[in-house]
């Protein structure tokens, strides 16, 4: 099968993945764990073939004049390889989610009704640059009993193909079908258009990349999409609060790393704590070179902080995901105003309240309409590993099916199981 | 707001529903249950206003020459009213799903992580003929803390509006916003096109009606759809089986009612039990006038049954949802053939195995890729009430988010809750 006839090529990949998915769905825990251990071993032993493939991508990227950080993302260093190999071993050590039957209840008719966790079937993954995502997605597919079709970035195509070969070898070594993990071997963009429009072969699409890419996929897909758009996260400092805790946690939420989607982009402060809190907080931000875009009240309270970089916030600032040493700062009159502001300008990703007041903590948890809501913790904790999911295929900012960090469970479905002794409907 | 500017009208409904949804999300259990009790009372006391509205719809339907069964579906008889009123009271008596926090675990970082069940927000419901669906959808919205926008069939518009007024009165009597339940007051079809394309106001669409309607909505919707297409359900009679049980259950699965989506449409019989089972089963079907469309082997075994209406099955028969006194019958050589046949020709709705062989029962449960899988029970049990969901907004033949009968939980989402004491990310 050559790749110049894209519709036929993609239909072929889809049919192969669909066929393999029924075998994966009934694969035993030991088979799946063997495949993951085999993959970890093969990654560590991959040696020159993988290094050469990676070098080709890096040389092409440098020749094409890609920025140094983009080129770095492509690099399969020894440490990157070791990390993904360990990830496979961690997945192997986790409980198998598939086949678990829960909530079985006897009904008045005599039947027993419960739910069994089963794979979704086939997922399609569309991603950019970092080739280690190939292994993360493949290993999650294996453990969750799904098949998958992977479409990485064109700049990583040789690395991805080399990694994919290791995945297929590991599957075969475990007695599982190599076709359970398919890689799109062409960089033709038409392949993405087909991948997202084959409901007969693909049950869900998981895109990872820039907002533009994800919006386009969500608009054009003919299958469900688990998607992550903005991370405009808020930290709200309540009226009754431990000031030391508030400074420490807010500092971490904003400055521990600027680029992740769970970094805080907007700071809301209750008017009662603002006079004591904001000058202290502002001094920390000033020392780290974090620009503060302020409402008038916040600006007045921060104006005396030496070295502070201050600006007036616009409505666009309240909605902005900076991913940079910039934070918007607003003084609010009440918890209600904070909640309304977050639900209006936020991106429903992750928002935290810092408070000593229990009823306010509970109201914030209930009423802020976000995938993760936190009390007295850094928004940076919103992460599959930190939540104990073992691995993360993505983060969902939707409410449907999977919300927030998506691990193995997000790749499964619950079917109803009825156990009878010959009961009939009256 | 008049209805001649459909986009503006629908945007207005959507904005009102979205605003009301935040109030519904934080409504107390007592408020929601009061609204449901008030609604039950008002339904029983509705009297002439409701009867007159219903009479208008029925007169119009009769004048338009609608078939008698279609006209009957419109009728709000005393019994229909009492049934929906009791449904509201049953929902009031059920546990409130909203706010429940589950699975809280302490993580090595010190934070506690769990999940809180919350409403989806706003659902849109598109349905045909029977006006009691207006009350079923409204009451499920109230209990699940959602707002909803209802779009019923044009033939029931006056009945739906009269019922809707009772819903709004009940909401107000409970101190909840009347806008939590919106009804599209125009019968213009353009309103449906808008309803399914307002992601800013509507989180999910639930269509109930003919397959054509649902396929069109699924293809055009810009928000998730909980949809139910075919119910091509199978009963498979295994090699080791109690023949009395097999005849009783298969009879019930096919003939207890012909029209529901969970009625069995296809009978598979293992070759080892077919010679004893099929003539007995065929006699029952012959007595009830059920036509049997057979493979060659089945036809040979049934040919001696007096009065049997037999025909040769085509591939189209294996895929057909008859909703009528017709059943396709096939003899299979193995459990594997049965499972493959069901996964190939079935609609992933409900399929049952009748067997005394435990390993075969377990394989069937695991490997048949359907929303409901059953052992030794009638497929007719696939139903929200029979499963103990208390109420049913629809049945999903998708794997994503909600699968099979959808009750209150399908109208909710789980958000992550993090409880800390000032933890920061390392």
Automatic annotation (TrEMBL), chains A, B:
Q: Which NCBIfam families match?
A: PRK00197.1, proA
Q: Where in the cell is it found?
A: Cytoplasm
Q: Name one GO molecular function term.
A: glutamate-5-semialdehyde dehydrogenase activity
Instruction: Name the chemical reaction catalysed here.
Output: L-glutamate 5-semialdehyde + phosphate + NADP(+) = L-glutamyl 5-phosphate + NADPH + H(+)
Q: Provide the primary localization.
A: cytoplasm
Which HAMAP family would you find in this protein's record? ProA
Q: What class of enzyme is it?
A: oxidoreductase
Q: Does the keyword Zinc apply?
A: no
Q: What is its EC number?
A: 1.2.1.41
Family statement: Belongs to the gamma-glutamyl phosphate reductase family.
Q: What is the designated name of this protein? A: Gamma-glutamyl phosphate reductase
**Start and end of every Aldehyde dehydrogenase domain?**
15-284, 318-383
> SUPFAM superfamilies annotated for this entry?
ALDH-like (SSF53720)
Q: Does the keyword Amino-acid biosynthesis apply?
A: yes
One of its Pfam families is Aldedh
Please give the pathway this protein is involved in: Amino-acid biosynthesis; L-proline biosynthesis; L-glutamate 5-semialdehyde from L-glutamate: step 2/2
What this chain does, per the entry, is described as: Catalyzes the NADPH-dependent reduction of L-glutamate 5-phosphate into L-glutamate 5-semialdehyde and phosphate. The product spontaneously undergoes cyclization to form 1-pyrroline-5-carboxylate.
Which keywords belong to this entry?
A: Amino-acid biosynthesis, Cytoplasm, NADP, Oxidoreductase, Proline biosynthesis
